[in-house]
Design goal:
Strand order of the largest sheet: 8-9-10-11-21-17-16-14-15
Number of strands: 21
Protein name: LacI family transcriptional regulator
Order of helices and strands: EEEEEEEEEEEEEEEHEEEEEEH
Organism: Isoptericola jiangsuensis
Strand content: 35-45%
Region (Disordered): 1-26
Pfam families: DUF6807
InterPro entries: DUF6807
Length: 280
Amino acid sequence: MLRRPGDRVTLSRYEPGDALPTIHSPRPYLHPVHTLDGVPLTEAGPVDHRHHYGVSIAVPDVNGTSYWGGRTYVTDVGPTLLPNHGRQTSTSTTVDPKAPHVLHDTVTWTDQHGAPVLAERRRVGARLLDDGWVLEWRSTLHAEHGPLEFRSPATNGRPGAGYGGVFWRLPLTPDTRVLSADGEGEDAAHGSTSPWVAFVQVHRDARGEERTTTTLLTQPTPTRPWFLRAHEYPGACPALAWDTPLHVPAGGTVETGVVAALLDHALDADEAAALAARLR
């Protein structure tokens, strides 16, 4: 748990996810994630996609096992509910007493039969900005149990659905704008290799008061295509298997992650680009 300096406002919470339904592919995740002023920037178990959980690594197909949850896209068939849901389990979660803002976790990925598929080393850290804060998630996926094949609905025949990776699910709000180096809007950002994308959202609380936030997402190099949604729901991830399967040989590794700036005001495209350059 990370708290705002000087008080007890929770900025983020790391949940083990072990009690999630099997059909949701149980996994550790971050939720809630708040701005410094306490505005929530994640959603978990929303009505539109019950298997979305805050910030997590969610991949629809690794060696035939779903770590995304819900239905699997089957070639020439379409979305199909299969008994193929795997599980991610934290096996060693530690916080360095000299760096209490950094969490280290070792995560075992098992398939639907309980057999280990891969091992993950995960680092989740935070730091303050003058006008917000930064959340960093970096993961190394190790093929220590044999070769890995990462796939997505796009690789199985559904164009544009190349989702899978460190996925950030944002809340639905009355107004969401998407910015990227490739232009404004979902169509410009989705599938692009922009070094950053930003969600500028207007939130309305129970009293009808409006507050504006920016969630700026960057990714470590090499830059992967962004899977991004804004109209159906707001969310994004650097896609591990955008339009072709990702193969990792036995003993090999693949790295992924996001570095996010969370702000209680709107950024324009130039401001977002400048801040993103400082984060990467």
